[in-house]
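Final report, Chapter 2: Outcomes

The project's central promise was a pipeline that accepts a single protein chain and returns its three-dimensional structure in a standardized token representation, suitable for archiving and comparison. That pipeline is now operational. To close this chapter, we reproduce one record exactly as it appears in the project archive, with the input sequence first and the structure output second.
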Amino acid sequence: MNYLERDSGSGYVEVGTVESNITEYTDMGLALGASYEYRVAAYTAINTSSYSATATATAITPLVDYDGNIYEIIVIGDQLWMAENLKVTHYRDGTAIPNLTSDGDWTSTSSGAYCIYNNNAANEVDTYGALYNWHTVTDSINVAPAGWHVPTDAEWQTLVDYLGGSSVAGGKLKESGTSHWNGPNAGVTNESGFTALPGGARYGSDGGYGDMGAYGHFWSATELDSSTARSRVLTSSGSGVWRVNDDKRSGLTIRCARD
């Protein structure tokens, strides 16, 4: 076991204990925006180790969407990102986002809509998130939780550049292993903690589904022309991140960034 201690400026106090090899701890009741230092010491019934090096963390508001889903958050460079795909079924003001299951309805709508891959709840929406068309991304009542937004193409590029460029950033963004990604999941380290998943897509041309396990498609908020918008794609077969011009009718996953 390990003692966990926190210093808010007036000396260290014990805030809890954690099992060995645990790398996350949620500390509650902190002042929003304040920074705290933490340290740990291992102990047994007989001995206590010296303290670890200190780590600094800043208290932030938990990310909760309208439906009550709580999302992990990750800091990458100067940006804050969701570490999970969006799965909300309402806009920020509580307006329901239509769930369009019919292929014809999906391809013909010019309004916001979402779906679950293959219209099958067994496809782990809690893991992969929902698929949204681009009209949902840009609706003025906002699909992102308060204080967050769907990132622009430029914000995606800032992320990619920070992680070493388009040829290697995908490996630093993808979830490690092959639990969700098809093998071999090439070049993966997930050193960013972004834990990108291959949620697949719904095609704007015919409403069909594909790519789950092989590709992660992520919307940006950047329009290219009247029918297409920018997205980013990661693949199981390489370590790159690719900028794509996608049909606005396509159903892709969303990761939000902090305002």
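Archive annotation: Residues 153-162 form the longest helix (10 residues).
This record, like all others produced under the grant, will remain available to the consortium after the project formally closes.
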